[in-house]
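sry for the spam today, last one i promise. struct tokens for design, 419 residues
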């Protein structure tokens, strides 16, 4: 176990411009600068360098490049382990241990001291090519009594694959999954390896919210706007997989009743805040990652309404940055951070961070802290940039600590506590 001590510092423009966004490789196309936008006088945004689409302007003040903020809080980072294989999600357990998924298909328990357990048996086969594999994991709302866990994975099917969600009882000895049941299968099946989405979050209503990507390729991308497809949607189902009667599109012709919202690209970060509001952070195109507050039945635009451009540097075909009938993002990044994993901080260990949204940054190699006030981002800080690791997920434990996994073949699990 290795213990690293550091002060909370913000990053000042240390992003590597040739790194990966949305797990797509890209080269910067533009040398122009986007004019910084700040929401307060006498403040500056984080210097993130060249914008990909400098001619695109925010729809409202503060929609991008908010004021840089700097924490006064000091913290320690404890490296619990460096031996996880491409971890995708971390879920703290009530007893202080941690449930971790590895992209190849393994689910493991990591002890509070960093000891990695053997793979839990009973996980269905996954298609781990490209961005696929064993993805998110979440404890059921009654885990304390029924030991139910839920996970998402790219399920191999005839003709390709798609995102599925399963549930099972974690055995008393935590060695196996019992009574495994697939409760949701995204349709259609597609022969691709990208944009599975896949974050899981239980709401205060007890329902399960599932984020789905649109599978990236231009031939299937338009389905993000088609209501007879799960692609590019957020799904809301009951814990047993049934469709709630109050979903917005129940009993509508040519519309899948599980759909909660439409027009998403590849959401790998989602979280509820203490007020019970659902927020997501979507992998956008080059120069178009966005933060959205999710509301029932709304359309978030992709690929009709979006900031940014294709990874080739070409415009997104026929797209505009704002349009009546579509929800404008609360915030966007250009250049992108490649968001994965999100957590609203609700604990008491870090009072200064109460209510802040933490987002993992793959391309940015940072833990991004957003201060949100009145549904607007009013401050941004980039933490842990000195470690130069792609952050895949961040979760809050019952002890108020933050737990982070990194996106590497020898992935690390970190515990962040007050100094």
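last one done:
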């Amino acid at each position: 176990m290795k213990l690293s001590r550091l002060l909370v510092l913000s990053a000042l423009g240390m992003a590597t411009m040739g790194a990966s966004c949305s797990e797509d490789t890209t080269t910067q196309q533009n040398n122009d600068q986007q004019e910084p936008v700040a929401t307060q006088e006498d403040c500056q945004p984080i210097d993130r360098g060249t914008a990909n689409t400098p001619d695109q302007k925010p729809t409202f003040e503060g929609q991008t490049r908010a004021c840089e903020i700097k924490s006064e809080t000091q913290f320690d980072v404890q490296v619990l382990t460096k031996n996880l294989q491409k971890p995708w999600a971390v879920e703290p357990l009530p007893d202080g241990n941690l449930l971790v998924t590895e992209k190849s298909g393994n689910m493991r328990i990591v002890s509070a001291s960093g000891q990695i357990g053997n793979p839990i048996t009973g996980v269905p086969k996954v298609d781990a090519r490209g961005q696929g594999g064993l993805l998110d994991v979440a404890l059921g709302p009654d885990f304390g009594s029924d030991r139910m866990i839920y996970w998402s994975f790219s399920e191999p099917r005839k003709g390709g694959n798609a995102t599925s969600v399963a549930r099972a009882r974690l055995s008393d000895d935590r060695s196996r999954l019992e009574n495994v049941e697939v409760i949701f299968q995204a349709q259609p099946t597609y022969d691709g390896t990208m944009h599975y989405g896949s974050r899981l979050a239980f709401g205060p209503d007890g329902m399960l919210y599932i984020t789905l990507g649109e599978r990236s390729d231009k031939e299937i991308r338009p389905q993000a706007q088609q209501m007879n497809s799960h692609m590019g949607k957020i799904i809301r189902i009951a814990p047993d997989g049934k469709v709630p009667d109050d979903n917005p599109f129940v009993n509508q012709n040519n519309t899948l009743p599980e759909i909660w919202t439409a027009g998403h690209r590849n959401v790998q970060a989602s979280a509820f805040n203490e007020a019970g509001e659902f927020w997501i952070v979507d992998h956008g195109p080059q120069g178009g990652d966005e933060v959205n507050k999710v509301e029932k039945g709304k359309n978030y635009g992709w690929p009709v309404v979006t900031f940014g451009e294709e990874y080739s540097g070409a415009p997104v075909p026929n797209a505009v940055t704002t349009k009546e009938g579509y929800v404008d993002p609360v915030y966007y990044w250009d250049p992108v951070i490649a968001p994965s994993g999100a957590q609203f901080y609700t604990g008491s260990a870090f009072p200064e961070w109460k209510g802040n949204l933490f987002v993992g940054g793959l391309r940015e190699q940072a833990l991004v802290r957003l201060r949100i006030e009145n549904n607007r981002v009013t401050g941004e800080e980039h933490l842990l940039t000195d470690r130069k690791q792609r952050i895949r997920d961040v979760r809050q434990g019952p002890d108020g600590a933050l737990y982070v996994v990194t996106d590497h073949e020898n992935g690390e699990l970190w515990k962040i506590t007050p100094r």
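DSSP finds one helix and 26 strands in the chain. ok im logging off now
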